[in-house]
Amino acid sequence: MKAHDGMYIDGAWRPAAGADTIEVVNPADERVIAAVPAGTAEDVDAAVRAARAALPGWAATPPAERAARLTALRDALAERREEIAETVTAELGAPLAFSRAVHAGLPITVAGSYARLAESYAFEETVGNSTVFQEPVGVVGAITPWNYPLHQIVAKAAPALAAGCTVVLKPAENTPLVAQLFAEAVDAAGFPAGVFNLVTGVGPVAGEALAAHEDVDLVSFTGSTAVGRQIGATAGAAVKRVALELGGKSANVILPGADLAKAVKAGVANVLANSGQTCSAWTRMLVDADRYDEAVELAAAAAAKYAPGDPADETTRLGPVVSATQRDRVRGYIERGVEEGARLVTGGPRAPGGREDGYWIAPTVFADVTPDMTIAQEEIFGPVISLIRYRDEEEALRIANGTVYGLAGAVWAADDAAAVAFARRMDTGQVDINGGRFNPLAPFGGYKQSGVGRELGTHGLAEYLQTKSLQF
Question: Is the pTM of this model over 0.85?
Fold first, then answer.
């Protein structure tokens, strides 16, 4: 894997302020595949100063011209699609087919959507005797996670750039190589110097420096709820805006009369995608008591089809988790589930196939899970599914709403109307109805401790705008 040995600041790759580096490890076999600079507060300050200097010019750039640059960015990402997929597979461990379709394909789609929005959005309107303007919020500090590394970058940078903001990105230290590819695409797209800047580094150093910097007007963060609280507190002290996409413990509610086989198969696929490292994964499967035993059998059979394998193999459906830390975390939750009385149907804490190298977790299905168990309340972020039985729809609703999270979910019923009626009572930001497809233009974000704000589509663009009214 190629890696730049500097930061992308003010339109060029420049040496880092310090000499420390971060090793990038392939999670399938623990080989070190590259190293990138470990950014310091000095690097962050240089990037923020470049973004601040570029802000007036970019904010004044006509929306049609911003749209043209975003279109060029989409094209530059499309030209690098295979390299992006291979890079994500190497540094994250996602199966290559999934990397091509989702990790590379989705960001191209999202970038294109913001190119269109930049040109069509109503940045100015008349309201009575007032003219109301939507203006860029300013310099954006974007801190992104490793689980969908390029998608989360594009979901923040593209709307910010469309709005006329300038951006400083601090990507996750596990997956910095695809962030460098994004910077290359920005450069190829012809954005003015300083409009986008990249600082690689670790969260407690570069991330904290970016969130706390006095010249950053908005911090957009995706990651754990614990870190989100810290960023929110830092931003609140400075009366700085935040957009936070945090944890989830989403419920997959299968109502009586639903197509059980279809719902269970889709639910297992949803959780095991990306090795379970998806904040919106439907990790709690809720099934009525009369069909519960059948659902357990179906889930075990579906999970058995996800044999862990070499992520670079075209046929692999389940790769490793991203790191030793993540592997040990997931193993700990599996062991806790067993200790608390859940029935381990398949999988478990041991590495599948006797693998000694890499960060492997077998697809794991728990039955007889009760709503108060740790595995039913806390985000595991691994290929682990908990099946919970309910007696009636009111109990199903209490269980579905019975966590501190509210990011996503699914409802299956005999007809869409019944599913919608249930979904409207769920305390969550996004619900799929009877297998509804992901919509990259629909707002994505959470209720409760799953975050503040929305990403994607017009709602995602609005996060990076502030309102001014002139009265005549």
Answer: yes
> What SS3 class is residue 91?
helix
Q: Which two tokens stand for residue 244?
A: 């936070």
DSSP state of 274: G
Is the pLDDT assigned to residue 353 strictly greater than 90?
no
| Residue-averaged pLDDT of the chain | 97
Are the C-beta atoms of 254 and 454 separated by less than 8 Å?
no
Q: Which of 168, 118, 164, 169 is nearest to 137 (CA)?
A: 164
What are residue 13's phi and psi, to 5 degrees? -85, 120
Cα–Cα distance for residue pair 216/238, rounded to 1 Å: 10
Kind plus residue range of the DSSP H or E element containing 317: none
Which three-class secondary structure state does DSSP give residue 320? coil
* E runs forming strands in 248-396: 251-254, 284-288, 343-346, 364-367, 384-390
CA 190 centroid distance within chain = 27
In contact, 283 and 410? CB cutoff 8 Å: no
Catalytic site positions: 245, 279
Nearest C-alpha neighbor of 398 from the set 370, 430, 431: 370
Distances (CA, A) of 74 to 79, 104, 105, 154, 447: 9, 11, 10, 10, 31
State how far the Cα of 146 lies from the Cα of 88, in Å rounded to an integer.
10
Are 39 and 205 spatial neighbours (Cβ–Cβ below 8 Å)?
Answer: yes
Q: Which of 381, 349, 386 shows the shortest CA–CA distance to 365?
A: 386
At residue 15, what are phi and psi to the nearest 5 degrees? Answer: -60, 145
Q: With CA atoms as reference, report the closest residue to 299 among 260, 338, 251, 351.
A: 260
pLDDT 10s digits, 201-235? 999 999 999 999 999 999 999 999 999 999 999 99
Taking alpha carbons only, the member of 149, 161, 168 closest to residue 210 is 168
Predicted confidence at residue 45, as pLDDT, reads 98
Q: Which helix (H) or strand (E) holds 169?
A: strand 166-170
Counting Cβ atoms within 10 Å, is residue 230 exposed (0-12), middle (13-18) or buried (19+)? middle
Q: What is the DSSP string of 98-110?
A: HIIIIIIHHHHHH
Q: What's the rounded Cα separation, in Å, for the pair 178 and 148?
A: 10
Mean pLDDT of 297-324: 97
Q: Residue 243 in contact with residue 455, Cβ under 8 Å?
A: yes
